[in-house]
Amino acid sequence: MEQEMAKQGNLYRLHYAKAALKSQIQSYFMEAKWLNQDYTPTMDEYMSIALVSCGYYLLIITSFVGMGDIATKEAFHWVSRHSSMVRASSIICRLQSDIVTHEGMLLQPLNAYMKQHGACKQEAYDELNRELANAWKDMNKEFLKPTQLPMPLLTRVLNFARVVDLLYTDEDHYTNVGDLMKDLIASLLIDPLPL
Q1: Whole-prediction pTM value?
Q2: Among 5, 56, 139, 156, which residue carries the largest CB count within 10 Å?
Q3: How does pLDDT run across 36-59, given as a tens digit for each residue?
Q4: Which residues lie closer than 8 Å to 150 by C-beta, 6 or more apart?
Q5: Contact 104/98 with Cβ under 8 angstroms?
Q6: pLDDT in tens, 6-42
Q7: Could you tell me how far CA 168 lies from the centroid of its own chain?
Q8: By the 8 A CB rule, do 42 and 115 touch?
Q9: What's the sign of the alpha-carbon dihedral 163, 141, 86, 154?
Q10: Helix 11-36 and helix 73-80: axis angle, to 10°?
Q11: How far apart are CA 94 and CA 109, in angstroms?
Q12: What does the alpha-carbon distance between residue 70 and residue 25 come to, in Å, rounded to a whole number?
């Protein structure tokens, strides 16, 4: 792949992808360190690591690698700066899944929020849901204001957030695949609507 990117003059894409992978690994290392030390981070500490460990920064960067000329160096720079839209997508990924799958999690935002703010569990839930709603507002705001990035790139970032919303609204459809998810997959892949 490196040779192909070099031929196309797009080697910089792999540099961004490698940097994202390094960040991903570093975030996993920090989470492992917290677990080994039996440390409950503050919400600020948790989110600074969790927004990377959720994987969306890495997924967005690597999804841009093969998108052709539409994914310019500026687009990769935009993602690497963790723009508000990339951040919002990561918040949606992390909080949506964490809120639904919190039982049994060793590192969880509920504990982090309660530790930092001295809040009860319900107050923590309410705040996480507010942050989730604000992330969707930030995502929508990015679509409403003019940007230099092409719409297919913005749509890609939005679609990552949509996937998590589908998988983790009300229950964990990722871990516990039921009829709803099976029907959605079948309608997409087996019985698609004719175009």
Answers
A1: 0.86
A2: 56
A3: 998 988 889 999 999 999 999 999
A4: 70, 75
A5: no
A6: 777 888 999 999 999 999 999 999 999 999 998 988 8
A7: 13
A8: yes
A9: positive
A10: 10
A11: 9
A12: 28
Which pLDDT does position 103 carry in this prediction? 61
Rg (Cα) of the chain, in Å, rounded? 18
DSSP string, 18-36: HHHHHHHHHHHHHHHHHHH
Tokens 């949606």 locate to 92
Mean confidence (pLDDT) of the chain: 88
**DSSP string of 105-137?**
-SS-HHHHHHHHH---HHHHHHHHHHHHHHHHH
77 or 194: which carries more pLDDT confidence?
77
Query: 68: exposed, middle or buried (C-beta count within 10 Å: 0-12, 13-18, 19+)?
Result: exposed
